[in-house]
From TrEMBL:
<feature type="compositionally biased region" description="Basic and acidic residues">
    <location>
        <begin position="180"/>
        <end position="189"/>
    </location>
</feature>
<dbReference type="Pfam" id="PF10551">
    <property type="entry name" value="MULE"/>
</dbReference>
<feature type="domain" description="MULE transposase">
    <location>
        <begin position="323"/>
        <end position="416"/>
    </location>
</feature>
<protein>
    <recommendedName>
        <fullName>MULE transposase domain-containing protein</fullName>
    </recommendedName>
</protein>
<dbReference type="InterPro" id="IPR018289">
    <property type="entry name" value="MULE_transposase_dom"/>
</dbReference>
<feature type="compositionally biased region" description="Acidic residues">
    <location>
        <begin position="118"/>
        <end position="145"/>
    </location>
</feature>
<feature type="compositionally biased region" description="Acidic residues">
    <location>
        <begin position="154"/>
        <end position="179"/>
    </location>
</feature>
<feature type="region of interest" description="Disordered">
    <location>
        <begin position="112"/>
        <end position="195"/>
    </location>
</feature>
Amino acid sequence: MEWTIRDRKWYFEVDKTRGGRMFYLQDDCKHEELVEMVVNDYMLQVNGELLELSYPLPAAMMEKLPTDSPPMYVTNDRQVGSLVELCKEHVVRLCVSTRVGMGRNYNEPIHECVQEEKSEEVDKEDVEEEFGDEGWDDNESDDVNWNDKAWDVNSEDESDDTHDNDSADDVDNPDDIDADYSKYGKVKDEEEGEESLSFRERLRRGVWNGGNGGFTGTWCDTILLRAAVKNEPDCFWVTKFDEDHVWLNLTYTTSYRALKFAQVFVRGTPEDGYANLPSYLRRLKQANPGTITHLLCDEEDRFKYCFVALAASTAGFQYLKRVIVVDGTHLTGKYGGTLLVACGQDANFQVFPLAYGVVDAETNESWGWFFDKLQTCFSPHPMVIVSDRALSIENACVNVLPWVTRGICYYHLQQNIIKTYGGKELMYLVKGAAYAHTLAEYNRCMDSLRAAHPDLAAYMELADPKLWSRVHFPGDRYNIKTSNIAESINSAIKKAKGFPIPSLLQFIREMLGRWFYKRREDALSLQTPYSKGVEYILAIREHYAQSMDVQRIDATSFHVAGRSHL
């Protein structure tokens, strides 16, 4: 595996027998740590290999440089820092090159190939005899327990007069009380010391003991799983992934523990989430000036409620129809909870999230607290709130926002009717009464409904037509007759409902960021003052209007004959 130049371009010749690895680098990663990762994951014999780490510059940077610009070599901590910063903006392919050397320690500078304590050279034939001409055989790794196997990093024992490349069995000699096992790796006699390792060290060694059993795998395997956590794979996916990329045959139980370990490593535990929530909310306000956040704890300083309204949402809502749809959805994390959302609809008939919060359950107290914080996001002008028929929402509107006009979701009303009275064949009359634009049309539908099903008509009148019918509604709810807007938000965050609280809030923030950016680009591309949704409606109505006959009556009145689609 080495770099070659052809046609004034550098190419890296890959040894396909060794495969690839994936590394997760912290911002404070050192060169020694990176080299140790490579050595452990590629199972290199450190004493007999000369290790070189390099990478090609990204294509975006190569466009501004000569085509024959050489690859970058990572030789010290400063170069590792540059590599980490570059990875934040570009996808970087790290290339590992090895060649047989003179037993040089990989921590020494490249130009120094002399051993400090060894005076005799390692015979090249001895190295090739142990590794073979083609290097390490990947197929042998399936039967090896890497946590119990000790590997030799010195060419010989100082107390041994023979020069036969001491094997792992010689290192594991229990009589050698002066041996420094930290250089050789994990040995069987040190199992009891594993509990004292730090979390990062346990992760680096690929050892995790917890729950009803332990997950033990290579460090590379853990990092590869980490890269796939955001895709929410199941245990069968993890098993197949290990078979294809890491050459491990894992059972379903082991795959489940590996997946749970990777999820905890990426997102933290639920307890960590509650502990880090104040810090997350503070950083969210610092990064998004104007964002409104509230955190409420009980008398024992335990989490109770939280509220978030991004600055972009509160600023944009001032230009929307003054109709807010609210709803709640259950969370599936360790401690449960409920996510409350408040949304509007923009000029393009798209969902516009205004605020969201996490509470214990949908109660009078939680909805009252949420509405109390929600009213700080808009001016107290005439407002309409649409929701399901939950009594807690009704009580919160009466106690906290008495000046708003409340309406109920027609879809929830329809589902209750079907569940209680059946009669799907009469739903066209129910919908006609709910969507009627004139009182005469409403009365016609209700009279037909009373004649066909008196109990159903009585139920609808008992539900108060001012809450569900368009013609009797005292406010302006426009075309928003259901709570589908909020239900759409609940569906969009379905896979994040089990995340720790900060990860859930961050998932929503990133989702809204993508939505707002896409809508801004769409708005900049408009050729008229109207949105794409409005232009579509106007185009359809124009198509039908062209088939109608119009006769002027006077200056302000016309007689229109034709279809009734408009």
